[in-house]
Amino acid sequence: MRFLIKTEVQQPLQEKPTAARSLSRARTLWKNWELYLLILPVVVYYIIFHYVPMYGVQIAFKDFIASKGITDSPWVGLKHFERFFDSYYFERLIMNTLEIGLYELAVGFPVPILLALMINEVRSKRFKKTIQTVTYAPHFLSTVVLVGMLFIFLDPNSGMINTMIRLFGGDPVAFMTQPGWFKTIYVFSGVWQSMGWSSIIYLAALTSIDPQLHEAAKVDGASRLKRVWHINLPGIMPTIIILLIMNVGSIMAVGFEKVFLMQNDLNRDSSDVIATYVYRSGILGAQYSFSAAIGLFNSIINFILLVTVNFISKKVGQTSLW
Amino acid sequence: MVKESAGDRLFDIINYILLAIVLTIVLYPLIFVAVASISNPAAVVKGEVWLLPKEINFTGYEKVFANKEILNGYMNTILYTVAGTIVNVGMTILAAYPLSRKDFRGRNIFTALFVFTMFFSGGLIPTYLIVKDLGMTNTMWALIIPNAVAVWNIIIMRTFFQQSIPFEIQESAQMDGCGNLKILLKIILPLSMPILAVMTLFYSVAHWNSFFSALIYLTERDKYPLQLFLREILIQSNMQDMIQTSEESLAKTIMEAESIKYALVIVANLPILMLYPFLQRYFVKGMVIGAIKG
């Protein structure tokens, strides 16, 4: 064993004749056979639970009949897509998905950056630690608990917010059942839950900024605000752009869980999104092909969005995911 | 040290005020739930409880712990979390270790195979059909196997292996006749405790809080995890089982329902609440390691 490795190291690759090279390739393969065995379960997992479903997505173009299975069900072309595009729900679903995604991006994206810049300026270690500990905490609440808390706080009779409104002489608002409030509640509760957690990544980026820049700016008489603006913000710009790409790329991928939990018959006009519709018509209604078509449509849009945004940012700012 | 200008002091003051507001907004709802859970529900409903508990009582907690379904759900959640996390961490190691090795041929192909699934997926329905075909519905495996490993965590762990354990150690062990398995068990894993802790935490919190898989794959109530009962009680307000309406007045029933909600939020988050101060630095560490571009 020891001898083998030595010879391999001593011979530079370029000088090897092809036969010897393929022999050594076979040898490293053989030497590392255990590694292939180790990774095998993970590969099998990805094939079964990620690639087989990609293959199975063909039911979007078929009339899926359970007894015949995915492969033998008859092809129907774009029937399900056309039905979806013509349906009464189409516009509502697209608009809601897009509006929630954009609203979330517009509000939820800048807040953690601001928070990180502010926390970074705190000089008392104790206060810094306190605010970090507290703002990270809601991240660990489950979506069910978060939405449960929304129901508790926004209850028209006993909720604290309405108690306060009454205290100031206003009329109580049934927040959770009014379509007009849905998106705002969705977005701002998301900010409440995740702003601290999302700020961690920016705080980490801020610590890697060269302190000499700050010293130099101080000597030149720059105020704190100016240093934040001209040193810290540009310093974390690459991080901001990467995260922006990822966020823009997932605008149409509005998550199922929270929308589903916040949804009820009264606010459905503004709360129904593609993911909840796929669940309703697919899992509950057992319209597998129709639902798969909608899901595929959504996946493709997300994929195109991500690739496009990545391409633009590569051209404009030389930062990209790949 | 240059003396601070008036502008800088003003900057400081504004910054502290804004952060204090943020602190209050984030913290207050959490405190309120805790306080309300041990207060007289009548006072809570009337809006008399703000910062300190009023007429302390533990009815909510009593009702929660007297409920068989919730306790059963709690036990289920513990089981799913433990089993799921073991599978998750094990699978992550199995993928991350080979991928961290420079002499592992085909690592780019494997990485690409895994990473592609982050950007494109077959979607809910085809995945659901697979799980159904494999006969996993209504078993705990439906909550564990389809989420056996996460790409992002593989990348984090692989990067950790590469950056904090010098490859030379592995090479020299190999020269001394140490096999790949032995290297993993005797060298890599003992040196990787921080990342293993982080992964365990990330995965177990995800299992503890997860609700979607259970919603679509489980129909038998005795297998439900806690989150599904939480949903019924907190959101759908389905509390017939917990409250005997026969003898008591309606008003009292509503009051009890209120205190059950608050108590349940606390109970559901108890493990994390208790461990949070100790775990926090690990969470942050994991997040920061994850931010390193792999």
Automatic annotation (TrEMBL), chain B:
Gene3D superfamilies per the record? Answer: MetI-like
Q: What are the subcellular locations of this protein?
A: Cell membrane
The regions listed as transmembrane in this protein's record are: 13-38, 78-97, 109-129, 141-161, 183-205, 260-279
The name this protein goes by in its record: Sugar ABC transporter permease
**Keyword tags:** Cell membrane, Membrane, Transmembrane, Transmembrane helix, Transport
Identify one Pfam family in the record.
Answer: BPD_transp_1
Biological process (GO) annotations?
A: transmembrane transport
InterPro entries from the xrefs?
Answer: MetI-like, MetI-like_sf
Q: Which residues form the ABC transmembrane type-1 domain?
A: 74-279
Q: Which family does it belong to?
A: Belongs to the binding-protein-dependent transport system permease family.
Q: Which GO terms describe its cellular component?
A: plasma membrane
Q: How does it sit in the membrane?
A: Multi-pass membrane protein
Keyword Ligase recorded: no
